[in-house]
Amino acid sequence: MNDRLQIHYVLSSPHQKEQSEVSSSSQARQKLEGLLNKNMRIRMTDGRTLVGLFLCTDRDCNVILGSAQEFLKSTDTFSQSEPRVLGLAMIPGHHVVSIEVEADSLDDTQGFGANH
Length: 116
Fold this sequence. Notes:
The structure is a single chain. The chain is an alpha+beta fold and about 120 residues long. About 10% of the residues are buried. The chain has helices spanning about 1-10, 15-35, 105, and strands at about 40-45, 50-55, 65-70, 85-90, 95-100. The protein starts with a helix and ends in a 10-residue tail after the last helix. A five-stranded antiparallel beta sheet has the order 4-3-2-1-5. It contains three helices and five strands; from the N terminus they run H-H-E-E-E-E-E-H. It has two domains: about 1-35; about 35-110, SH3 type barrels (Roll). Helix content is about 30%, strand content about 35%. GO terms for molecular function: RNA binding. It comes from Oreochromis aureus. Pfam families: LSM (PF01423).
């Protein structure tokens, strides 16, 4: 889909390009707003995983999670480590490897599927 948007930008006039960027930006903002207060799992570069409620993000992709719990990377893939309760946590964008949203949280969110 991004390839199509880039091609569209190349083929459109500068004025049309600005309108497309604004509508694309507002669509992205609506999707993010739909994820507010949803449970997320964020995997980080050091192997830790944080689980909590998505509260906000910024242009640098920093993420704030509420009621966050930290799970450490385990050498034994079958063992479940006890989570450490963090409460409010800020994850720097450059440490984010992946973000997953719980499928149950997405049932009432329009525009998203369980695969995102």
